[in-house]
Amino acid sequence: MQKTILVAGATGGIGAPLCERLALAGQTLVLAARNIDRLDALSARLKGTGKHIIIPVDMSDDASIAAFGSALATFGRPLDGAVLMPPPLPRNTDPFPDSDTWRSNFQRSFIGPLALLKLAIEKMSTDVDAGHRAKVVIVSAITSVQVLGHYAASNVLRPAWLGQAKTLAFALGARGIHVNTVSLGGILTEHYAGLISGRAKEAGQTYEQRLADETANVPLRKYASPQEVAAVIDGLLSEFSDHLTGINVLCDGGFTRSF
Ligand SMILES: NC(=O)c1ccc[n+]([C@@H]2O[C@H](COP(=O)([O-])OP(=O)(O)OC[C@H]3O[C@@H](n4cnc5c(N)ncnc54)[C@H](OP(=O)(O)O)[C@@H]3O)[C@@H](O)[C@H]2O)c1
Description:
The chain has helices at 15-24, 36-45, 62-74, 99-122, 152-172, 190-203, 207-214, 226-237; strands at 4-8, 28-32, 53-54, 81-84, 134-141, 177-184, 248-251. By secondary structure, it is of the alpha/beta class.
């Protein structure tokens, strides 16, 4: 069955390969992010039979989210799925950022994206008896379950998404709306590979040496490719998750030590 899926954060290092995969499988996509040129370029290169639409949005801005909601409401098809990628938080070691910084981090990476998700859920239509379910996938990070010293704000906001997903799973399960999270470890997006290159240069190493050093504490001895992440998210959007909701999938090569 052809599905209609919203991808918020569509043009990013993970979003773009995900959209490419979903489009190739015949899904129709609602592509959302801020930069319209990048959205246009992504839409133009997607292969498949879906009639994709673009709705620009700034997930940190209430007015922009409201405009997104109006545009989504006029779109003629219900959503079968939504993938939410809250805007990344900057690396930060400060355990006591000032109140304005906290407010801004919460707005950008939790309150705004959650408002957008609410609009997406309002656009979902399910029929459990006919096996027609809708799937929400929220992208989080391994700081959802394990503190990392250099990601102080993430240590607070990533677990918040797990609590929110569980809450929504309970609230929406009877309607056949599933809500799961994917917590990512290191992902070899172009941006992240560039950071590794920089660190390799500083340390007088080759890129390969640096990558091997940085993944030495990952059981699978690698970071994920964006395509591997796309496959996991695609799985959670598919019938694979027909009896799964409120779960957190750790996509981290085994890095997380806790059960
Ligand atoms: N890459 C990793 O290693 C890694 C690890 C753990 C978790 N994650 C999480 O995975 C998700 C995707 O990461 P990524 O590496 O693909 O990030 P990315 O390459 O920086 O892409 C971010 C995407 O979100 C959009 N975006 C950013 N700010 C936005 C805003 N305020 N409103 C609407 N859209 C916004 C960007 O497009 P515009 O700039 O045009 O808006 C882009 O499409 C994020 O939630 C990130 O925190 C990534």
